[in-house]
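Lecture notes, unit on protein representations.

Consider one protein chain, 343 amino acids long.
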Amino acid sequence: MFLDKLIGLFSNDMAIDLGTANTIVSVKGKGIIINEPSVVAVQHDRYGVDKILAVGQEAKQMIGKTPLNIQAVRPMKDGVIADFEMTERMIRYFIEKAHSRKSFIRPRIIICIPHGITQVERKAVKESALSAGAREVFLVEEPMAAAIGAGIPVSDPDGYVVVDIGGGTTEIGVTSLGGLVLSKSIKVAGDRFDKAIIDYVRQNYNLYIGERTAENIKIEIGTAVKLDTELKIKVKGRDNSGLLSTIELGSEGVRSAIKEPLKEIATAVRNVLEDMPPDLAGDVVDNGVVLTGGGALIRGLDTYLAEIIKLPVHVADEPLLAVAYGTSQVLNEEELLKLISNE
């Protein structure tokens, strides 16, 4: 016990929001120090040996542009580990970057996980962090971290609903007394919006675009409701004949493209609300629903959801960082860690 405390003085404990789209790392006492895409660029040589060329932002720039022997990999898919080895190497890279390779004591690490993952997937997350150099690993569920990061008093007896729309999953959680009373995780989120935009542009304009272009369209003109002034963007891609072409795409087109995934998210939120204990339902009528995650930045999403679920909906102050802030807070407050950790 004394040794643990002594080690704690010298090691930089870390919190990792291991997201499908981005990985955000906080260090105890320093706050968020890394916020980079969850992408690894790998070079394959002729002997079958893989060499990591880049991780994070630098690797993301390579997506869709690499020669045959280089591959840009996203090791997380739908909020879970799709490529164990690459995830481990990515975590190791971020640990070393966070510690500037100076620390000789392995850190304790808190990792945020989607609510719906299996025991096998939980084990995979823990093992990849331990292999990457963690001394001890704690897992915290994403809806809980999002609620804490959005400023919701999770240890109160009041019921609050948080909807975290990430890259791979949308996490819906009802918090009360330091726990999740109800929660649901669906594999419909930012990546599905991007795919829907790619399909829409191909079907309506015979233009082939990549993931990065679709994501840019979503950020620049994505909307869940009809806007007073339609936004437009020039989109470049390859047409059916193989020639490069440019079209103008409007926000109404994007709204039409992402209509189905938005509907699935709204249905999932309604299902959670319908299953809620009556006493908590009264609280939620007063407190409303809080949106976090990158998907919360889609224009008018709060208005769109409020119309369907007939409750007030508001977007957290910094939705993209809510889960990371929540995980970081758990890192700094031992009592909170004991209260909500899954270990």
